[in-house]
Amino acid sequence: MSALTLRLSESPRQRIDLSAFTPDRLDGASIADIQAIPLWVGNRQVATGDLFEVAGDDVSDIRIASNSDRLDSIGAGMSQGRIQVAGDAGAYLGRGMRGGEIHVSGNASILAGTGMTGGVIRIDGSAGDFLGAALPGDRRGMRGGRIEVRGNAGDRVGDRQRRGTILIAGDAGDYCGSRMGAGTILVLGKTGANTGFGMRRGTLLLGHPPELPPTFNDNGEWDLDVITLLTSSLAELEPPFGTLPQRGKRVRRWLGDLGYGGQGEVLVWS
Amino acid sequence: MLIKLSGGTLIDPANGIDGEVRDLYIHDGRILHEAPQGERPQKTYDLGGKLVMAGAIDLHTHIGGGKVNIARAMLPDDQRSHPRERTALTRSGGGHAAPSTLAAGYRYAEMGYTSCFEPAIIPTNARQAHMEMADTPMVDTGGYAMLGNDDLLLQLMSEGVSQEVINDYVAWTLHATQCIGIKTVNPGGISAFKFNARELDIDERHPHYPLRPRDIVRTLSRALAELGVPHPLHVHASNLGVPGNHSSTLATIEAAEGFPIHLTHIQFHAYGTEGDRKFSSAGAEIAEAVNHRKNVSIDVGQVMFGQTVTISGDTMHQHANRSHAHPRKWTCMDIECEAGCGVVPFRYKDKNFVNALQWAIGLELFLMVDDPWRVFLTTDHPNGAPFTSYPHLIRLLMDRTFRNEQLAQINPDAAAMSLLGSLERQYSLYEIAIMTRAAPARILGLADRGHLGAGARADITVYRPSDDAERMFGTPMLVFKDGQVVVEEGRITAPVKGSTQVIRPEYDRAIEQRIGKWLDRYHSIGMANFRISDEEMAEGIGSPVEIHACRPRSAA
Questions:
Q1: Using CA atoms, how far apart are residues B370 and B388, in angstroms rounded to an integer?
Q2: CA A260 to CA B301: how far, in whole Å?
Q3: So where are chain B's domains?
Q4: How distant is the Cα of A43 from the closest Cα of chain B, in angstroms?
Q5: Is the model's pTM score more than 0.95?
Q6: Under a CB-based contact definition with an 8 Å cutoff, are residues A6 and A39 in contact?
Q7: Which residue on chain A is closest to B330 by alpha carbon?
C-alpha cells in the first residue's frame, strides 16, 4: 500500500472544494472511482482525474501536492487517518474535523479549523484570518482538538472558540480570542489590537504583553500551577511548543472582557 | 401552438368534475375543451391513467418582504447545509427554512404550484417585497398589505371618521402597494407593544388609542366587504401561541359581525388550558365555530417536526417566544411605525409535549372542519414548517394508517390529549384539489386559475397516481405554466417568470390629501415614492400586474 497522492496538474482559475478527499469519504474507493469524483471549479463540474494526477491506494494516508492556494475545505469533516499537503491550503482547512491529522507544509487561508471538534492540524507556514473561528452565522467556532501554527496567524484567531487548543509560534493579528467562550490560545509572538475583545471565558497565554481593551482588569503577577500542567502536556511536541516548560509558571494575569461577563483570562509570561 | 393533453383523468372541483377522462387543449396559454376549427395539435401528451389538476395555489407563504431576508441573513448555515447546485437551466440557490428566492420558486414549481401569495407586506416595504417575489421564478405572486397597526388607520378610527373614509384608505393602500388583499396581524397589538404592552386581548383597550382589537377587525372586514374585494380580511388573531387563546380566536370570529373573515394559521390560535401542563387542544371548539359560520375561512399553519424559522410581524409574541429560539439568536424590530418584524429560529421536536400537540392540533383542524372550500393547506411557511413539507402533509391527510403511525411516534402525553387518533376522516383527491386549487382561487377572486374550465389560464399539473400521496404530490409528472411545460418528472425543464396579481377597488381620491399630509409629516417617504406604478412593476421590478375583478360594491 502506498499513500494516495493527488498532484494538481495546473493552477485553477477558480476555487476547488476538496472536501470529498478524506479517509472517511474515500473508504473503499478505487483509483478509477477517485478519478471520476466530480469537483466544482467555479460554476463548472470537472472530474478529479482531469485536475489531478492520482496515484497510490492507501486512502487513510492522503498526500496533496499543489502550487495553488485555492484548494478549499481540505480534510473537512474527517474523523481518522492523515492528510499531508505539500504546498498551501485554501480556506476552511479541516472544517468540522472530528479526528485524524492534517499537516500543511505551506500556508493556510481563512477559517482553518472552523467548527473542528477533534484531531490535529499542523501548519508549517502561516494561517489566515479566523483561525479556529466560527463560520458567519454559527454560534461556536473550534470545539475541540489542536491547531499548531509555526508561522503567524491573521485576525480573529479563535473567534467564538468553545474548546480545544490553538498554538501559534509567531504573531497573531487583531481581535485575537474575540468572543471566546472557552478553550486555550497560545501566542508566542506579538498580538494585535483589541486582544480578547468580547471574551466571556477561556484562556489566552501570551509571550508578549498584549494591547487589551479597557474592559480588562490587571490581577498582578502569579505563579500558576495550571501553566505547568498545560506546558507539560505539550512537552512531546516539537519546539517551540515542546520546550515551553522552560518558561516557568509565573505570569501576569488580566481578567475580562468585563463588558461580557469578564471570566476570560489573559496570561502573559513575565 | 396547439397542445393536446389526451386521455387524462381530470379532477376539477371548481367545475364539479371528479375523475372524468377527457381531452384538454392548450392554445395561447389558455385551456380549451375543443381544438379550434381546422387546427391540429403540434404536440400531444398521452395522459392515459394520469391525474390532471389545475396548478396549485398557496395562499399564505412568506416568500418576500424584509423579514425573509432578515431570516436568511440570520441563518447562513441554513443556506450552507442545503445547497441547490446550478444546472444548465436553473441557477444555484439554497436554504431549507428560509430558502433563497430562486430555490423557493423552483421547488414550488417542482411540487406543481403555479401561484403563491405573500401574506404580510408592510405597505412601506411593498416595493422590496415585490422585487423579491419578482426574483422568485416559476410562479405568479401576489401579496396582502398589512393594516391595523399603522398609526394612520388607528388615528382615523380614533377620530371616529366614517366607514367610507376607512374604505378609501384601504382601497388606496391596495392600489399603492399593488396588493390583492389586506391582512391584519395581532390587530392593534404590534402598535400596543411599542407603548410597552406585552399582551392585548381582543376586548382590551389599546394603551394609546381608544380602540380595541375587536374594533379594528370589524372595521377592516367591513371595509373589504363594502369595497367588493374578494379576499376577506386575512386575520392573524390576537394572542398567537398563548395557551387559552381559543377564546380570543372565537371572539375574533364574532368581531367580524358576519362580514367575511379569513383566520390564518389558526393552529397557533387553537390552544386551551386543560390538563396538568395547562396546554391543550381547542381544535374541536374552533372547528365547530368554523363549521357553523359560513363567513369564516381558515388556513391551518400546520407544524411539522424539524428546524425552521418563525418570521412574523407580530413583534409582541415573537418577543414573548424569544427564549425558545433555536439556535439561540433572534431579533424583533419596528418597521417605520407601520408594523413590526420578529424573527426567531425554531426547532419543533416530536418528543416535546407542546410541539407534538401543536402538530396534532393542526391535523385535528384539517380533519374536523367539514367544508374543504373553507380550510386551506398551509404550514404558514416557514413558521410551522417549510413549504417543502406539503407532500408529507397531504399524505397525513389522505392516509389514516400513515397518520396513526406518525401519531404513535410523538410525545405520548400529547398523543393522549389529542382527538387525532379517533378521527377516521381521510381526504380524497377531490378534497385535496379543492383546498389547494379551487378554493384558494375562489377566495382570492382569481377567476382565471384554479380550474380546468375552457378559457382558464393553462396552469396545469399532471400527477402519476400512487398509493403514496407524498411521492405523488412531491414529484408531479408534468407542470404547465401559462401553457408551457416547465417541469417534467419533478425537474425544471424551462425556467419562467411570473406576474403579480392585484385588485383595484374604486375609491374617492380625496383621501389622498389626508394620506399625503400624513406621509409628509410622519413618514420617511412621500406619496409619490410610496405608491408603486404599473410601469414600475413591469419595467423596474420585473413582474407585470394582472388586475382581477372586484365584486360589485355593496352599500356602505
A1: 26
A2: 39
A3: 56-309+347-444
A4: 8
A5: no
A6: no
A7: A137
Report the sign of the C-alpha dihedral through residues B371, B551, B121, B533, in that order: positive
Q: Residue B327 and residue A139: Cβ atoms within 8 Å?
A: yes
Contact B212, B240 (CB under 8 A): no
Which residues in chain A touch residue B80, judged by CB atoms under 8 angstroms apart?
A: 135, 137
CA distance B143 to B159: 29
Q: Does domain B56-309+347-444 have CATH number 3.20.20.140?
A: yes
Cell 407586506, residue located: B121
- Cβ neighbours of residue B81 closer than 8 Å, sequence gap 6 or more: B96
DSSP strand pairing (B30-32 vs B17-27): antiparallel
Q: CA torsion angle for B255, B256, B258, B264 (degrees, to 10)? A: -120
Q: Beta strand pairing status for B491-492 and B484-488?
A: antiparallel
DSSP string covering B16-34: TEEEEEEEEEEETTEEESS
Quick one: DSSP state of residue B373?
G
Contacts of B95 in chain A (CB under 8 A): none
Contacts of A76 in chain B (CB under 8 A): none
Judge contact between A54 and A8, C-beta under 8 A.
no
Which helix (H) or strand (E) covers residue B331, if one does? Answer: strand B331-335
CB-nearest partner of B75 from A40, A43, A137: A137
- Measured between CB atoms, which of A40, A43, A137 is closest to B76? A137
* All domains in chain A, ordered by first residue: 60-269 (2.160.20.60)
> B90, B78, B73, B81: which is closest to B136 by C-alpha?
B90
Crossing angle (nearest 10°) for helices B126-134 and B66-74: 70
Nearest alpha carbon to residue B99 among B389, B315, B330: B389
- Respond yes or no on whether ipTM tops 0.90: no
Phi then psi for residue B127, to 5 deg, are -60, -50
- A263 sits in the region (left: phi over 0; alpha: psi -120 to 50; else beta) called alpha
Enumerate the residues of chain A whose CB falls inside 8 A of the CB of residue B77. Answer: 135, 137-138
B83, containing H or E segment: strand B83-84
∠ at Cα A42 (A41, A48), nearest 5°?
Answer: 5
Show pLDDT as tens, one digit a residue, over chain A (270 residues): 899 999 999 888 899 999 999 999 999 999 999 999 999 888 788 999 999 999 999 999 999 999 999 999 999 999 999 999 999 999 999 999 999 999 999 999 999 999 999 999 999 999 999 999 999 888 899 999 999 999 999 999 999 999 999 999 999 999 999 999 999 999 999 999 999 999 999 999 999 999 999 999 999 999 999 999 999 999 999 999 999 999 999 999 999 999 999 999 999 998
